[in-house]
Amino acid sequence: MKHTAFFGDGEKTFALPAEQILELERKTGNGFGTIYARCMTGQSSFDEVIETIRLGLIGGGTSPKEAQALTNAYARPTPFARNYQLAADILEARWSGKVEAPAPDAQHDLRQAAATGDASAILRARIAEAYAEDADDEF
Q1: d(CA 64, CA 67)
Q2: Cβ contact 21:95 at 8 Å
Q3: Torsion sign across C-alpha atoms 45, 49, 52, 55
Q4: Which residue, 3, 11, 68, 77, shows the most beta carbons closer than 10 Å to its own?
Q5: 15 and 73 share one domain
Q6: Domain extent for 85
Q7: Residues 11 and 69 in one domain
Q8: Is 5 helix (H, G, I), strand (E, B) or coil?
Q9: What is the C-alpha separation between 121 and 132, in angstroms, rounded?
Q10: Cβ(24)–Cβ(37) below 8 Å
Q11: Which residues contact 9 (CB under 8 A, 6 or more apart)?
Q12: How is residue 73 annotated by DSSP?
């Protein structure tokens, strides 16, 4: 029930265990189901989105002080759509219990292919690496 994403200065883990859900409900004045439904229908408030990110960081292992610093530095000045998507992913991970599969490591595949001398595997690894770079450029 965790979500991993690039946020601010690197990859971060986000999670909403029970303690963070209770705090999210207290801070926003809404139940978790309402927060989730509002987010999935594009009706979340700025505070709901920012608090979801901040509390998700804390639930993922970031200290409360660092989580506050990260949200102040990176979430508040960032375009709302990007924050909204991150909050939706955090809430969805908790709501559905989805667990993300780790991203394929194109560099590892390339090293393995080179070690075996498999030219077609090297080509596939390079193509996968190019697609991964294109996906990173979207955000």
Answers
A1: 5
A2: no
A3: negative
A4: 3
A5: yes
A6: 2-96
A7: yes
A8: strand
A9: 16
A10: no
A11: 70, 74
A12: I
| Residue 114's pLDDT band (cuts 50, 70, 90) | low
In this prediction, residue 7 carries a pLDDT of 92
- Say if CB 84 and CB 49 are below 8 A apart: yes
Q: How many CB atoms lie within 10 A of CB 2?
A: 18
Residue 104 has a pLDDT of: 55
CA 13, CA 61: separation in Å to the nearest integer?
A: 7
CA–CA dist 139, 124 (Å, integer) = 24
Q: Taking all residues of the chain, what is their mean pLDDT, rounded to a whole number?
A: 83
Domain count of the chain?
Answer: 2
Give residue 139's pLDDT band: very low, low, confident or very high (50, 70, 90). Answer: very low
Predicted confidence (pLDDT) at residue 128 exceeds the cutoff of 80: no
For 76, the token pair is 């508040």
CB 72, CB 34: distance < 8 Å: no
Three-state DSSP state, 101: coil
Both structure tokens of 3: 């979500």
pTM comes to: 0.70
